[in-house]
């Protein structure tokens, strides 16, 4: 297929795009398996009380996913996006079995090493391939649909696993969902997905962007736009790592049932996922700097309000608000990175961004675990809330007020 015959756009590529959205829902479902019940398994099955030890599974997941993200971006053009997607699903196959049969916490950590590889390869590949397919005009919408599918699946599976665990026990039944996700994800990726290298070639010929001299350093901090996005991504996932690990424990101290905890925990990624159906398209029309600033500001404020909550409905409302704040920034991150990176450097720049963003999982879990053990859960939540507000301030100070859409 010659690059001249390739058409960019959502309408021209709707079949492949829709397939990648479905596959990314399965990717999100793999994370949702752990979202509600793994902290409960740590305490009930392995007798782990220290917050730092319990959150070790998120540290392992975050570090491995972050490193895999970087290499997915760096290798995307050499290995092929589809090949990386298939490899990511091969890594997912053992995960549910490890979680079902784990007789020590080390097996859970090994499962999260594989989960990090799966998420880094599979989610990053679907992100880059969708951006390749749609071209410049619909990037925000593409990322909204991609992230919406992924995080709706996270929320839906988090709710389902909480309900199944409440009815039938923590293991093995909740993890049967993971077996189905891994098999279907691998089959669809291997048989039906097509690579998007020709779409990149087609866009390269029409791009007016200059190439970055050093993709890693400029995406990390030197470029004021890319650097602002990268630090906000890190802080966003830092607070998400804290919510993932500590919110179920915090809710447990309020004497909520496992089913109620599952409902509250699931609201946040569900709203995050649904919201991106709207905020992704908004990112194609509104000023990205403003969306990132207000989204991070809302997240920080909500985290501070968690400290004062004491009823199911207050926690539920705050979980919804946190989902809205995250929905505002999440597709905007990726659409903005794609705006400022040359098409031939896009995959690598997105990989660098996702490296720092997902290191936030590890940093958040480690930092909040230490703070929670030393000073209590409320100190940990408050500290991360203030850090999120500071991140919003960096966006306001450093990022250019440019829409580029």
Please write out the topology.
Layout: H1 14-35, H2 38-46, H3 51-54, H4 56-79, H5 81-92, H6 95-101, H7 105-134, H8 139-168, H9 176-191, H10 197-204, H11 215-222, H12 224-253, H13 258-282, H14 288-306, H15 312-340, H16 346-375, H17 377-398
Estimate the strand proportion: under 5%
Tell me the series of helices and strands, N- to C-terminal: HHHHHHHHHHHHHHHHH
**Topology, number of strands:** 0
Instruction: Characterize the overall form.
Output: globular
Number of H/I helices: 17
Overall residue-averaged pLDDT value: 91
Q: Compute the CA-based radius of gyration.
A: 20 Å
Question: What are the low-pLDDT stretches, counting only 5+ consecutive residues below 50?
Answer: none
The profile of the biggest β sheet is:
none
The helix content, as a percent range, equals: over 70%
Instruction: Give the termini distance in whole angstroms.
Output: 29 Å
Structural class: mainly alpha
Describe this structure in words.
- The protein has 17 helices and no strands.
- Helix 5 packs antiparallel against helix 9.
- It has 405 residues and is mainly alpha-helical.
- The longest helix is centred in the N-terminal third of the chain and has 30 residues.
Keywords:
single chain; 17 helices
Offer a concise description of the structure.
With 405 residues, the protein is an all-alpha fold. The chain has 17 helices and no strands.
